[in-house]
Request: fold
Amino acid sequence: MEKVIAACAQPRMTIPESSDQFEAEARRFLRQSQAKAAQLVIFPEFTGVMLAAPLISQLKLGFIKRADQGKHPRAGILGRGMGLVSGATAGALGGGLPGSLKRLLGKKSDDLRDLYFETFGKLAREFGAVIVGGSLYLYDAESDTIRNRAYVFDTDGEVLGYQDKLNLAFDEKDLAAPGSDLSVIETRLGRLGLLIGRDTLYPELARLLAILGADLLVGLVASPGAAQAAVVRSAMAVRTDENQVFAAVSFLLGPNFLDRTNPEDYFGRSALLAPISLTEKGDGILIEAGTNRTETLIAAELNMDALYTLRETGRFQPRQEINLGNLGPVLAEMYQEGLTIEQAQEKRLAGKVPPAPESMELEPSLPAEPISAEVPEEAPEPAAEPAYESVPEAMSLTRSSEAENE
Reply:
């Protein structure tokens, strides 16, 4: 596929009274994408959660709905006051939307999954587009846990694949468990790598998706607060150049019903991003939403041929030229054991890791006691030349099956 027109929806979090109402709202964005000839349409994190509302008891739903109306930008003083009262009442009746959602998932997770599949499958067929349906919480029988999961639908309505969120926000850890796998989803338009919420902030995840062959990184985000949304946008922009891929980030806006302790509203400016040298203004932005608080849909053309040419001929080739020197085993140990930076430092200071070789000594201006890896007995002595000359070679240390097969 030489060129692909991709679109990002930027909807508002709402509490629909029925699945038909939700479908009508989704169709509104898809009509806009159709007018822009978009072949790929992306919905943000928690889009599917809105489909849970019609499955919740009508009494609780009524209070949650009025709380939603009170948070609407056009709500008056009376409406906002009633919204606060209704939100408190919904919480008293069982934890508001989070509590109701948790009970729903315990009893009717299959109903929610079927409704999600039916809705987005039908919309994909109707509009002839590949759709990233946004994420929702679902029970996963294989792991016996709840996962924050997003699915991709083909133009015939069939499911092409899914991705679980790996790094949960603080407010969802009581509801869900983190995912364990990362994969690229093959579509007729190219290879997609999905990053949900906080997953967008970790460069290692984007790099692994690039190694697995992703050409487009898709960020699905519901970000409480404008500052955090700006951090996500900045991170996704960096991911494009350091991996030489395209990126799309789709934000959810509006009231945050899922955090009972700090329900700060969702903000964000959705964007389609490219390596800087492939953008007219040299800023890495193909197109972005005009504001971080208004619903919209944006679309832009992704020139895949230009991307592949850049990878082969660009003066900066991060996919081929990375040199880790003797640091490869250090990263390998950290990643294989799941260590944080602080844990790795503590391990080094505790004397569980041999001293670092002289070649790994850091500049005096940097923190002392650099991290060092414990080399297995059967491992050969480090060669004089860099042992890991490319991204695939380096990442083979993390037991990536794709890298090992090279």
Confidence is low (pLDDT under 50) at residues 78-95, 354-376, 382-392, 394-406. The two ends are 25 Å apart (CA to CA). Residues 96-127 form the longest helix (32 residues).
